[in-house]
C-alpha cells in the first residue's frame, strides 16, 4: 500500500489493517507509540494480537460489522482521542484504520448553526 508523503510524518499515530486484521502500514508516530510492542515490526502481524484481551472482541466486531469506534482515554497523564474506522477499496470493505492523537484535557466544543456555514 502506498500513501501520500504527508501521512508519514503526520503528528497522529495512523495504523492501517486489512479486513482480516493484518497490520498493513504504520506511520512514524504509530511506530513510536507502539514501540514497546514492536513498533514497525508489527506490520504483518494481526491487530487482534496487539490489543489486550478486553479489547479484542471489540476490535473483532469492528472488523466484522464495518463500524467506527471513537473514544478518548488517559494514560500516564496524557489524554488521547482514538478513531477506529473502516476503509474501503473500490467500494469493498478493506479493513480498519486507527488514528490516535493527543488532545488537551480542556478543549472548546463549538456548535455551528447551518446558517453560519
Q: In words, what does this structure look like?
A:
Helix content is 21%, strand content 35%. The protein has one domain (5-116): PAS domain (Beta-Lactamase, 2-Layer Sandwich), CATH 3.30.450.20. The chain is of the alpha+beta class and 117 residues long. The chain has helices spanning 5-9, 28-33, 53-65; strands spanning 13-18, 23-26, 69-75, 78-89, 92-103. It has three helices and five strands; from the N terminus they run H-E-E-H-H-E-E-E. The chain has a five-stranded antiparallel β-sheet with strand order 2-1-5-4-3.
CATH architecture: 2-Layer Sandwich
The helix-strand sequence is HEEHHEEE
Low-confidence stretches: none
How far the N terminus sits from the C terminus, by CA atoms, comes to 36 Å
The CATH class designation is: Alpha Beta
Output the number of helix runs: 3
| Structure summary, number of beta strands | 5
User: In what order do the strands lie side by side in the largest sheet?
Assistant: 2-1-5-4-3
Instruction: Please tell me the total number of domains.
Output: 1
What portion of residues is helical? 10-25%
Radius of gyration: 15 Å
Amino acid at each position: 500500500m502506498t500513501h501520500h508523503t504527508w501521512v508519514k510524518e503526520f503528528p497522529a499515530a495512523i495504523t492501517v489493517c486489512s479486513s482480516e486484521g493484518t497490520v498493513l502500514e504504520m506511520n512514524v508516530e504509530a511506530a513510536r507509540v507502539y514501540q514497546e510492542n514492536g513498533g514497525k515490526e508489527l506490520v504483518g502481524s494481526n491487530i487482534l494480537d496487539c490489543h489486550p484481551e478486553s479489547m479484542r472482541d471489540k476490535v473483532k466486531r469492528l472488523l466484522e460489522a464495518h463500524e467506527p469506534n471513537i473514544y478518548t482515554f488517559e494514560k500516564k497523564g496524557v489524554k488521547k482521542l482514538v478513531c477506529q474506522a473502516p476503509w474501503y477499496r473500490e467500494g469493498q470493505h478493506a479493513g480498519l484504520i486507527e488514528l490516535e492523537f493527543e488532545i488537551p484535557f480542556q478543549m472548546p466544543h463549538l456548535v455551528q448553526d447551518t446558517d453560519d456555514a
